[in-house]
Amino acid sequence: MVKSMKNPPSVVKLVMEAVCIMLGEKPDRKPDSSLGRMIEDFWGPSLKLLGDLKFLDRLRNFNIDSIPANVMRKIRDIYIPNTDFDPKIVRNASTACEGLCKWIIALDKYDRVAKIVAPKKEKLAVAEAELSVQVSGNIFKLFA
């Protein structure tokens, strides 16, 4: 169980970090003595998320059509190209995180396709509206 891990494997942290970013969870700011500055730590927020009774509902009901561009950019820049962000690799550390990794990858793919399909849907709606006007005009001519 992921939330019972005191010091989780790096791939578990990586996946949970991506999930936190996707769900809009803010990281904790912690001092890093080796770097001498503050770092973003997502493990605390990850544990809170995993302990939330509505976590699965949040995943199921996630609005996939309104993911902010900056969130997708971060996911695509940091997580998707990371060789460790692979369900097969993640599975070795946690089967639960494997599913979450697949979820993030699926959202990335969906978002890419949706950006291609959206303009086509708009053109279809305009064409259907124009057709409806033409058809209704022709019906009036038939009965006039």
Automatic annotation (TrEMBL):
Query: Which GO molecular-function terms appear in the entry?
Result: dynein intermediate chain binding; dynein light intermediate chain binding
Name the Gene Ontology biological process terms.
Answer: microtubule-based movement
Q: Which residues form the Dynein heavy chain coiled coil stalk domain?
A: 2-132
Identify this protein by name. Answer: Dynein heavy chain coiled coil stalk domain-containing protein
Q: Looking at the UniProt record for this protein, which Gene Ontology cellular component terms does it annotate, in alphabetical order?
A: dynein complex
Matching PANTHER family, A to Z? DYNEIN HEAVY CHAIN (PTHR45703), DYNEINS HEAVY CHAIN (PTHR45703:SF1)
Q: Which InterPro entries match?
A: DHC, Dynein_HC_stalk
